[in-house]
Backbone:
């Protein structure tokens, strides 16, 4: 069963992200981190198949989380989606440059997130097989 | 601007609305660009407030053009917004080429606006506009050559790449202010990093600003995690390291501040340092270090904090969401109370809920309170403008300002500046006569302009009174007839005639002078205020003067609403505009000249059916409720089928086709997952009571 980690400090957004991803075809396991630090603690606990992260958080920002994941052999290949209110071209470019696979701007369509997530999960499955 | 535009006749009403609003924005942009040009010419740096204003103008123009679907204007405004954003965040340099590009953009906007309504002329502009757009895009893309502080930083580039835009901005700002930048590295056990890290960051915050926190795998990646912290401080790295006294952390300089070259901020700082040093004996180096730490902590003690308004918005939104959650909790509690099996538990929960409600209301008013600012600053701006105009026009005008301490939501205050300024300019320019004329009329040669602000319930009323010549209603009417706004022979009351000054496309003078805001009329004032949920009224006595009264809500954020129902639907009506509610038999409705009226304590009250306003099915029950709405001086009775009670509501903007529907201010969630539309009472009352314009 694919495991998804959602990193987002706003409870409302977190619930929205989770409910959007729960409807993915086939069953998925979703874990939620309410801060960047919590994400850092959760990362080594499981084999993650997808990480969805916010950018602006109080402890570490989403770009830093991407940078951390990409610099670490254990998470280097985990697909990563950044979801942010910052629609700025700069942050989008930075996120992708640091190794995120997609960048979604809030408010996003739940269907859009699902589609991207499904695609990334399928790619990961194909690579694993 | 003064040239007549032959093609104006082809413009639709929407075109005219667009052009008049766009021209006002453009006017602000033109002034801003010229100020920016002056600064650039004088080799001053850019003024953040000025750039911010320009950015907002470009943003408004983009949004406006998008709404009216003028693509070339929207595209150009979008690019302009980008480049100003770059300037704002210090990514684009202020230089002569940028200034001339901005001037060119303003001129192009003006040319485009002149051609609105003429599709061919607009199309012929496509190529030059896209060329200009392209050039602006290139300017944004060009890397900033001179003085890129980031290149001077001695840190791993991966750390800089992971900065958000805001963090990068803070970094530049700290460098500009002449602070030292240090890199603090620390490694923790991955299972317990938070405790140690928060101890370290707390220590850092005592001595400076924590700019970013980059995690990286430690030497033993399975069990350790490393953090690289970028810190701005007044202490050089070495002293910072000693001050932190954190054995696990290594501190090194990423950028040593060059104090001699830094901006005025460091001058201000040495002013703080010096008196302290004077009092003490020549300090030992180590004593100096202690002293610096002490000063740092002293400096942070101040009773005001500057906060970005967006952070307050965020806070307000959170409170709003809490309020909605509370509503949902209330419903659940009520359901628990209803069933005998859970009534006891429900009763206890109801108590807790009540307490929560009280605290939430306190929280709400505390957050609202933080957003409130006095009108003083706006008044000072008005006073400055009047002083300048006095010189330019050679009029003797005495200014009386009262109620400068009246408080309004920051956002409303900002949006108020333009309309207020416009009204003041009109008064000085048109209303108050030259001294000779006043003397001849037996008046004090010195004119008087009085601005009074006072709070009335949930509204603030701002009245601008002059003792000038008053509005000549005959000339006004003649002018309106000329423009086809009134048919000859149409009967208008004195008040209705005065109201014509708010009709789009009407200016009582043909020769538009420099100070009058160049042809932008009172219609824009009215629509600007309406966007804030406010209204504007006029009173005038020939020979004696004119009073323009603006009534504005104190805040836009959370409002108490009356929830009403028609058929299957519910609507929220802001309680601030509800005077009273009545229940009546349908048979009590009187009809006169096609209008429905109600005799309300001897006064006729104009009625409207909410169902018909939005073309909903009207079950026409025998007993109906009348919601008496009052906006400024106007009254309207709105007929609804049901009353559901009062509730706190957070108005959220609507996107999509409903967004431009007149009469709807937004949507709200009452906690039961079903969105409810919020009525724009000022638009509804306005439309019903104002004579419909002839188009």
Residues:
């Amino acid at each position: 069963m694919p495991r998804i980690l959602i990193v987002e400090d706003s409870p409302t957004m977190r619930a929205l992200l989770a409910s959007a991803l729960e409807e993915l075809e086939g069953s998925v396991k979703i874990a939620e981190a309410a801060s960047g630090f919590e994400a850092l603690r959760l990362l080594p606990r499981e084999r993650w198949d997808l990480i969805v992260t916010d950018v602006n958080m109080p402890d570490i920002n989403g770009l830093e989380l991407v940078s951390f994941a990409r610099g670490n052999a254990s998470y280097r290949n985990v697909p990563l989606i950044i979801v942010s209110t910052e629609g700025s071209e700069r942050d989008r470019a930075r996120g992708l440059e640091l190794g995120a696979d997609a960048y979604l701007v809030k408010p996003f369509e739940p269907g859009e997130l699902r589609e991207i997530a499904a695609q990334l999960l399928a790619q990961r499955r194909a690579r694993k097989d | 601007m003064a040239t007549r535009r032959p093609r104006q006749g082809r413009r639709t009403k929407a075109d005219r609305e667009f052009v008049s609003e766009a021209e006002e924005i453009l006017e602000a942009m033109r002034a801003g660009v010229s100020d920016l040009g002056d600064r650039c010419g004088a080799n001053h740096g850019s003024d953040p407030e000025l750039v911010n204003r320009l950015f907002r103008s470009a943003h408004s123009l983009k949004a406006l053009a998008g709404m009216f679907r003028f693509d070339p204007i929207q595209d150009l405004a979008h690019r302009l917004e980008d480049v100003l954003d770059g300037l704002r965040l210090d990514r684009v340099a202020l230089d002569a080429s940028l200034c001339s590009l901005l001037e060119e953009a303003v001129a192009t906007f003006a040319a485009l606006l002149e051609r609105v309504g003429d599709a061919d002329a607009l199309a012929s502009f496509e190529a030059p506009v896209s060329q200009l757009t392209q050039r602006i895009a290139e300017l944004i893309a060009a890397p900033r050559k001179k003085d890129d502080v980031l290149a001077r930083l001695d840190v791993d580039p991966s750390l800089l790449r992971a900065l958000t835009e805001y963090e990068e901005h803070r970094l530049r700002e700290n460098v500009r202010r002449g602070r030292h930048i240090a890199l603090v590295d620390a490694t923790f056990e991955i299972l317990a990093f938070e405790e140690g890290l928060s101890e370290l960051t707390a220590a850092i915050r005592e001595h400076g600003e924590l700019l970013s926190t980059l995690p990286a795998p430690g030497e033993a990646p399975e069990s350790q995690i490393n953090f690289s912290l970028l810190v701005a401080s007044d202490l050089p790295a070495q002293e910072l390291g000693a001050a932190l006294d954190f054995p696990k952390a290594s501190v090194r300089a990423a950028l040593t501040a060059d104090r001699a070259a830094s901006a005025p901020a460091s001058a201000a700082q040495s002013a703080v340092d010096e008196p302290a040093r004077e009092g003490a004996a020549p300090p030992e180096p180590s004593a100096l270090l202690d002293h610096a730490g002490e000063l740092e902590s002293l400096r942070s003690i101040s009773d005001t904090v500057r906060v970005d308004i967006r952070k307050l918005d965020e806070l307000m939104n959170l409170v709003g969401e809490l309020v909605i959650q509370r509503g949902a909790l209330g419903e659940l509690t009520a359901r628990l109370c209803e069933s005998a099996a859970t009534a006891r538990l429900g009763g206890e929960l109801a108590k807790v809920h009540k307490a929560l409600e009280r605290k939430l209301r306190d929280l709400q008013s505390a957050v609202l309170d933080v957003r409130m600012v006095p009108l003083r600053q706006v008044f000072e701006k008005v006073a400055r403008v009047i002083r300048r105009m006095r010189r330019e026009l050679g009029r003797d005008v005495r200014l009386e300002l009262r109620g400068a301490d009246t408080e309004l939501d920051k956002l409303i205050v900002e949006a108020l500046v333009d309309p207020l300024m416009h009204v003041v300019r009109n008064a000085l320019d048109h209303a108050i006569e030259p001294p000779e004329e006043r003397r001849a009329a037996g008046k004090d040669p010195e004119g008087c302009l009085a601005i009074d602000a006072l709070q009335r319930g949930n509204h603030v009323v701002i009245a601008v009174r002059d003792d000038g010549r008053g509005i000549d209603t005959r000339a006004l009417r003649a002018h309106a007839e000329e423009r086809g706004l009134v048919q000859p022979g149409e009967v208008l009351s004195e008040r209705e005639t005065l109201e014509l000054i708010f009709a789009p496309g009407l200016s009582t003078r043909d020769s538009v002078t420099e100070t009058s805001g160049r042809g932008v009329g009172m219609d824009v004032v009215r629509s600007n205020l309406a966007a804030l949920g406010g209204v504007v009224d006029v009173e005038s006595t020939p020979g004696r003067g004119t009073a323009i009264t603006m009534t504005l809500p104190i805040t836009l954020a959370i409002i108490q609403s009356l929830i009403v129902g028609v058929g299957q639907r519910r609507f929220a009506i802001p309680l601030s505009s509800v005077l009273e509610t009545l229940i009546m038999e349908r048979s009590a409705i009187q009809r006169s000249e096609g209008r429905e009226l109600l005799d309300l304590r001897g006064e006729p009250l104009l009625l409207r059916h909410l169902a018909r306003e939005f073309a909903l099915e009207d079950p026409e029950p025998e007993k109906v409720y009348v919601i008496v709405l009052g906006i400024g001086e106007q009254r309207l009775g709105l007929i609804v089928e049901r009353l559901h009670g009062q509730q706190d509501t957070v108005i959220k903007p609507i996107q999509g086709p409903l967004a431009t529907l007149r009469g709807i201010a937004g949507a709200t969630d009452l906690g039961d997952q079903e969105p409810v539309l919020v009525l724009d009472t000022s638009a509804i009352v306005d439309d019903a009571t104002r004579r419909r314009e002839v188009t």
